[in-house]
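Listing S7. Sequence submitted for prediction.
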Amino acid sequence: VATSSAPRSHQSSSLPMEFIEASTWLLRSCGKHERAIEVSYNRMQQGQSSSGGFWSPIKYESYTATHLGELWATSQDAACELVLQSPATRRLLERNPRMGLNVFTVLHPQNVNQWKDLLAKDDPLAHPWFPAQVVKLLKQIQPTTIEPPAETEHVLPMNTGRALAVSFLESAIGIETGRPTEEDAFDLVAPDERQEERISDFHDELCYLLLEGVISEQGDDVQDDRNNAQSEDATELGEIYRHKLRRLLKWPIAKVRAERLLESLPSSFLREQALVLGRLGRHEEALKILYVHCNSMDLALEYCDLRYKRQQALLEAERAHTKGGGQQRDDRNPFAEDGYRAPHGQGCAYLPLVKVALESDTDRRRGTTAAIKVLALRRNVIDRAGALRLLPKNVPVAAVARPFLIPALVESESQARRLKVVSSLLRARHNALKQQLTDAQLKAQSHLNVVPQLKALNLGEPLHSTKPLKARPSSTASQTFPEVVIIKHFFPRHVVIQAKVTNSSNVVDGRALGNIAFVVAESSDEAVQPSTLVPIKVLPFKATGSAWCVLVAAPNRIEGAAILTCELRYTILGVDAATGAP
């Protein structure tokens, strides 16, 4: 099949139907991919002029799309070049645009988790030239089938090359498939400037394709745009393009070159101009467009809400980064500035709207009323002190009290009560965990083979351990002296004294003991001297813990018995009146 000199159409027509798939697989195994596609295409053509026994168009398209998709998925230059140059690719895109588009998007991540697991080298736009060639090819396609309107809102029908290119770019950049907008580890690495430029080119390309789609659907006769609502678009397709354009401009990680786009936007695209100005950090100008030219407080508040959400996302990212880096976060007092927080270098998202409302209206009273309305509607998230400072000094308190001050004070008091309850619960949880930690430490320190300081001496197994002996305090001992039981463990060259201390004295009034150390103050024989002490850090009331003292014995120097004078040193800890903890 692969090497015969007979005409290709005659070869494929003479093959029985059951051998077609076998022959195409044989050709593919020999690397004759274009010939394999041609054989299956000829068979499908025969099916259209004959009855029965031949491939239907949908079977051919499915088979061809799978074949081309597998070639594209190899990411090999020769295979990808074949897919781009093959007439079968164009035929597939023209007859079944969505199936043909899937050939180029088969490797694109389809959900958040896949985007998070994606390696930088596998980014859909990482290749230096193939993505651009795909966009160029798709823009040249004119589908021969007309898709009916989709039941799902804002789904772009694949009826033009522009629509195909838009869908490919949306899939490649991830705006359509939930690409995460928060920073990740790759954002901390110095970017590749060439790749960043290429990616920005694709974002610009998508933006201008969407802009062309809007303009082509509404014409050039739109002169006035007071509300820039959906009624301005002449067709449903225009509404879809405009929705996608605004979504791209709102996307936090879009890499659109805002200065260039701002110069290209028609004067009637007011909301789009506001979004681009926002990307440039010119928030007051953007809000003036929405509030004054569009005459819409709702659009202005929506703009501020979007900015506020981004600020909160940045704050969460900063907190996570600080926590992960082991740094101490310098939180502001939650009651200062009414608890408002903004990322470093950014101001309150709503203060520019208050300022625009005050400055843009020729009627000062009406402007002040609009500013107070902003304060009232967003009193939970606005910088209250900063907003009040913007109001004119002659504004009567009564004008601000009912819509803003009184509800803000009530909410602040409620928040204070909630925080107080939360603080008590967290303190109780902290004390419980602290108690559990102390109990675990006491339990671990009660065993000879577990104490780290003793394990480091490599003493081995004891030769002999004495029975527990209750210590007798001297006549001058304090009334707070705890109960002490002594156990001696003998090793070849060491003696380890275990003092099991129980904080049971009623004189301490339920308080804990701290830094309990069993100390050998004097030895009758210089051959036996203390070397290591393991004290008890904290011993709660009624609890028992072990303090340790290690003695080193010099060989062949001990004559008879050695008499030791021992002391138990400890501190009576104070009690936190608020928590009852030591």
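Caption to Listing S7: primary sequence and predicted structure tokens for the chain studied. The first strand starts at residue 464 and ends at 465. DSSP finds 21 helices and nine strands in the chain.
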